[in-house]
Amino acid sequence: MASWYEKAVFYHIYPLGMLGAPFANTEDAAADRFPELDKWVAHMEALGCTALYIGPLFESSSHGYDTRDYKLVDRRLGTNEGFRHFTKLCHEAGIKVVVDGVFNHTGREFFAFQDIQKNREGSRYCGWYKGVNFGWNSPYNDGFGYEAWQGHFELPCLNLQNPEVKQYLFDVIRFWISEFDIDGIRLDCANVMDFGFMQEMRAQTASMKPDFWLMGEVIHGEYDRWVNDGMLHSVTNYELHKSLYSGLNDHNFFEIAHNVRRLEAIGTKLYTFLDNHDENRIASKLNKKAHLPLAWTLLFTLPGIPSIYYGGEWALEGTRTRESDAALRPCITLEEGEAKHSDLTDLIAKLARIHTEQPEFHGGRYQELLLTNRQYAFARHAQESVCITAANSDDQESFLSIPVPLRASQAENLMDGSIIPVENGKLNLTLPGNSSVVLKIRED
Questions:
Q1: Could you report the per-residue pLDDT of 39-80, keeping only the tens digit for each?
Q2: Among 336, 361, 386, which residue terminates a domain?
Q3: Are strands 234-235 and 213-216 parallel, antiparallel or unpaired?
């Protein structure tokens, strides 16, 4: 029986941006933006999403990743009570909730860092941070130095080998489970985190809540170093993300197929996406808007746990600048979004339901069936059935003769319900330009 996260279709929200929170957290009183967020639950449900990744949420000073207080929801969004109500609405709609765990570093306003500023060598928290050194000075003129994430000294790095730090962070996760009933954590900066810390986290969280999901932000590297029975359940599949848009832009399905084969051993466990809060929007990355439906079809049917970054269902565009990621994290009301509803929105909702309903996509084996620069077909296997995706990225229609990997007489088109015969072990299709199809074939 597949777990909830193996079947999941995720929706991804960057709440500070989507809800129009001010960049600087300077107010004493909490805002009340959660009633606006509550409206999105029905939208996620209508799209066919069964899980939400939302974050950052911890009380912070600016962009959300400079944490002030791990047990307080960011006051620019609202109160703990407001978020508790939101998670309850999600769960009532059958939507699991995963939040950002910003555990690699804190902000400078976090209590432990401020204690070092105040008490210097006498602080009991000197060992909570990496590289605290009173022999040199930080760019903030603290009178001491410390290790900072990628040289950003507003983000001092926690020492995740310190038993007190580890226990504190495990208690934070326990707090979020007990207070908000969250279902998982997305570990920010997992690629640079201490492996021992993540191993202990896996063991600790397994006893806190059954089926609690740990997903890490990892860009480069051998993903199975992080994704295994002793570490995390999943990491972000940036490799597939890159190959999807560049493979379509270059008319090179070989790049996508090569990447899927490379990750075959763990690919079904990886968190897959077309865009997110750190990446330019897929609608801005693709050279041809006609390739957007193809990209979404591949995302939902290739191995992985697919996600929709808010606004992607309406083909929102956005490109980061050297100074700002704000264009990737826009403020948008649900009403403004729904006014942009299009055929793409309907396609994504249909693909989400196909992904949820067909067991082939819940960890099913991948098999390449046909591959050229501009045409691609592959199967996902279940016990006595397969789902086959066929795609044509050329502007012209293309005839495909696809070998069927089991004994069958017909295929059902899951997009429109039509029936296509299987003749002599082959599916013979004519695909229009820039189109794709998802088929279900049951063994005779």
A1: 999 999 999 999 999 999 999 999 999 999 999 999 999 999
A2: 361
A3: parallel
